[in-house]
Write a structure and sequence with these properties.
The protein is α/β, with parallel strands linked by helices and 270 residues long. 41% of the residues lie in helices and 13% in strands. The chain has 11 helices and 8 strands.
Length: 270
């Protein structure tokens, strides 16, 4: 398959072909997802919750994202690689935002960065785009703003909020973003935003009418314990499979069954 670029994503929207995006945090996962034909791999700041066990995404650092991004980059040949800009990596100043976005490309081997926020972050998006770094926007429920939002709540319930979110999405596009994530919002609002924008929309908890969908890979595989938001569909439930496998290993080691002759070495054997 030919390497996918941001220009290809626009063509997919124009043709009405849905776009797939999944998070990836390591080389083997990236290799598998890429071989399946996923269009976008996101090294999300969700790594903080999924792999590090943080309560939210706020503690994640630039160095952590870059580390995981480098690993994912080595596993993908087809997909577009997007890296999340973590909390406080782009909010302080335009110069710092540009420098950190550049680090994602130069050190993390990312091909684009993702920034949360709408009208309030349009200037940041524009500044980064102006130095030729592609930006994916993110509006609706923005996890880095959970303290202001009062938690993980559905966005777009009231008319005033709907107008604000529509304006946010437009601002992201006008600032130069090549795509925008719409997270946990009323599906009819996401449909309206998708119809009005010329750039692709990628939904997560935003209904079927977005141009594409994204999920956290651990949620999709059933590796997130009891955490299961309404918008998550588990396509597999691997946690009990892994538990059984590990218990079988423990049992065989305790009983002296493993390693057996087949899995042992003897000097002088031919």
């Amino acid at each position: 398959m030919k390497k996918l670029t941001i220009l290809d994503l626009k063509e997919l929207k124009d043709r009405g072909e849905k776009i797939t995006m999944l998070t990836a945090y390591d080389y083997p996962t990236a290799r598998i997802l890429d071989s399946c034909g996923v269009e976008i791999l996101l090294v999300g700041d969700s790594v903080g919750s999924v792999l590090a066990g943080y309560d939210n995404t706020l503690p994640v650092t630039m160095d952590e994202i870059i580390y995981h991004c480098r690993a994912v980059a080595r596993g993908r040949a087809y997909a577009l690689l997007v890296a999340d800009m973590p909390f406080l990596s782009y909010q302080i100043s335009l110069e710092e935002a540009k420098r950190n976005a550049g680090r994602m490309i130069k050190e993390g081997f990312a091909e684009a960065v993702k920034i949360e926020g709408g009208i309030n972050m349009a200037g940041v998006i524009r500044a980064i785009c102006d130095i030729d770094i592609p930006v994916m926007g993110h509006v609706g429920l923005t996890p880095q703003s959970i303290h202001r939002l009062g938690g993980y709540k559905i966005q777009g319930r009231e008319q005033a909020q709907r107008k604000k979110l529509l304006a946010d999405a437009r601002a992201v596009e006008e600032a130069g973003a090549f795509a925008v994530v719409l997270e946990v919002m009323d599906a009819s609002l996401a449909r309206e935003i998708t119809a009005q924008l010329t750039i692709p929309t990628i939904g997560i908890g935003a209904g079927v009418h977005c141009d594409g969908q994204v999920l956290v890979i651990n949620d999709l595989l059933g590796l997130s314990g009891e955490f299961r938001p309404k918008f998550v569909k588990r396509y597999a439930h691997l946690e009990p499979v892994i538990q059984k496998t590990v218990k079988d290993y423990i049992s065989e080691v305790k009983a002296g069954i493993f390693p057996d002759e087949q899995h042992s070495f003897y000097v002088g054997e031919h």
